[in-house]
Amino acid sequence: MLGFSSLIDRIATAPGSLVGWAHAYTWWLAAAAAGGTGGWAAGWAWWHGRARTVLRRRAVVELVPSAGFDPSEEAIERHAARLARVPAAAGWVPARASGVRIRHLCVDGKLACRLEGPAHATALLRLPAFPDVDVMDAVPGDHGDIRIRFEGIPPLGEQAHGDDEPGAEPVPGPGREGA
């Protein structure tokens, strides 16, 4: 049986023996730390590569309502609940790639809703949400965005500001020095 004094002696010498053990196995400890760091970095790179792959392969579906489309509150809640299940239906994908994007646009004079989600959840996205809505496959990446340009005005970022040039006179006005 250990006495109180021998227990205190062991506790007092434990840090020294631990330091001695770490000094004796420094090479192995460094190799284990490097291996752990390398394994973590490889897993991180694989996970982010998987996210990029899933984001490139997104499914796109358009919902085009008929002229008499008037959904009930219950139908809207059912549709929202279905969209909330898309990340679970997508399976084991990174969180940033499992979300659903909803875009509203005009197709042939009708309001349309474009749903984009992971390709593994395509079947859930294609389910008819409402009785008076046509579900159509859409072309991924074709957002239907129209760029508006004004003649004689360059886009932001390409505009040359007169006060950026050396030796230019400051323009007086509110909030400017020398006004």
Write a concise keyword list for the protein shown above.
179 residues; alpha+beta; 5 helices
What does this structure look like?
With 179 residues, this protein is α+β, with helices and mostly antiparallel strands. It has five helices and four strands. A four-stranded antiparallel β-sheet has the order 2-3-1-4. Strand 2 and strand 3 form a beta hairpin. The longest helix is centred in the first third of the chain and has 31 residues, at 26-56. It is elongated, with a radius of gyration of 31 Å. Residues 173-179 have low confidence and may be disordered.
End-to-end Cα distance, whole Å, is: 90 Å
Pairing-aware structural class of the strands and helices?
alpha+beta
Task: Spell out the helices and strands N to C.
Answer: HHEHHEEHE
Radius of gyration: 31 Å
Low-confidence segments: 173-179
What is the tally of helical segments? 5
This entry's quaternary arrangement is single chain
Average residue pLDDT: 78
- Biggest sheet details: 4 strands, antiparallel
Helix content: 40-55%
Strand order of the largest sheet: 2-3-1-4
Strand content: 15-25%
Task: Give a quick summary of the entry.
Helices cover 41% and strands 16% of the residues. It is of the alpha+beta class and 179 residues long.
Write the layout of secondary structure elements.
Elements (H helix, E strand, L loop, with lengths): L3 H21 L1 H31 L1 E8 L7 H12 L1 H5 L10 E7 L2 E9 L3 H5 L6 E5 L42
Antiparallel strand pairs: 1-3, 1-4, 2-3
